[in-house]
Specification:
This protein has a single domain, classed as NAD(P)-binding Rossmann-like Domain (Rossmann fold), CATH 3.40.50. The protein contains eight helices and seven strands, in the order βαβαβαβαβαβαβαα. α1 (17-28) crosses α6 and α3 packs parallel to α4. By secondary structure, the chain is an alpha/beta fold. The termini are far apart. The radius of gyration is 18 Å and the shape is globular. β1, α1 and β2 form a beta-alpha-beta unit.
Length: 260
């Protein structure tokens, strides 16, 4: 493929887990990459280890919880590589919380700053330009944890429910522009984010398997998808459970680890 004809992916949280797997999958399909993470040295090591063509990627250091930082990364991407075809707001954190603990309120604030404000700030530099061009895909990474609140997961569940609602709002705003807004809700994926979980994780996927299914959904412009589909069924059943039954089912379930 002629390099000038290659589409461009901008993805946050690219130094590990889902973000890195998505970057690899899009690269495999011929995309140029704009890779964003706080840990740029890890990204550089990964790109070198995989033998990525230096002409096909750039690395941008940014913290999505810092609005000016991530907006600057998006602006730099447009200046240096052009307007992306796909933007994936993937960066996120997941930390257990207990509202009885004062310091956990700070954890909640940090979770919202990263998972919600950080997502909107990731999209910000590209929204108007994509609308003017009449094409593009803005992809928000939610979670099946958005479907129902789980004990000890208040910050994460609330933030991911916010991702789903925000992307739905943005989708309506962008509908006439030709820009697609895609919401992907992973189930359990074997990444550093989940490896410390103290409970069963049904239908656990490897990051590469998730990335392959996500790539197809993004390319098709699917508005909303749970991956894997089995977790989508589980999530719908959970949503249908009456509150008293739901509460009994999850009573005593292991909680997400809090910060030490």
């Amino acid at each position: 493929m002629d390099d000038s004809a290659r589409p461009l992916l901008f993805v946050t949280g690219a130094s590990s887990g889902i973000g890195q797997a998505l970057a690899a999958r899009f690269y495999q399909d011929g995309y140029h990459l704009a890779l964003v993470a706080r840990r740029t040295s890890e990204l550089e090591a990964w790109a070198t280890a995989r033998g990525l063509d230096a002409a096909r990627f750039r690395i941008y250091g940014a913290d999505v919880a810092d609005v000016d930082s991530i907006v600057a990364a998006g602006t730099a991407c447009i200046a240096q590589q052009g307007l992306p075809d796909v933007v994936i707001a993937n960066a996120g954190i997941s930390i257990g919380m207990d509202s009885a603990e004062r310091r956990d309120l700070d954890v909640m604030a940090r979770t919202f700053a990263t998972n919600n404000l950080g997502l909107a700030a990731t999209f910000h530099p590209f929204v108007a330009a994509m609308a003017a061009r009449g094409s593009g895909r803005l992809v928000g990474i939610g979670s099946v944890a958005a479907i129902r609140g789980l004990p000890g997961h208040g910050a994460y569940c609330a933030s991911k429910a916010g991702v789903v609602a925000y992307c739905e709002s943005l989708r309506g705003e962008m509908r006439a522009s030709g820009v697609k807004v895609v919401t992907l809700c992973p189930g359990y994926v074997d990444t550093p984010l989940t490896q410390g979980n103290r409970y069963g994780m049904p239908f656990l996927l490897q990051p590469e398997a998730f990335a392959d299914r996500a790539f197809r959904a993004i390319e098709a412009g699917i508005s909303y998808r749970v991956i894997p589909w089995q977790m989508g069924v589980v999530a719908k059943l959970m949503r249908m459970l009456p509150n008293p039954l739901f509460d009994r089912v999850f009573q005593g379930r292991g909680r997400k680890r809090r910060e030490e």
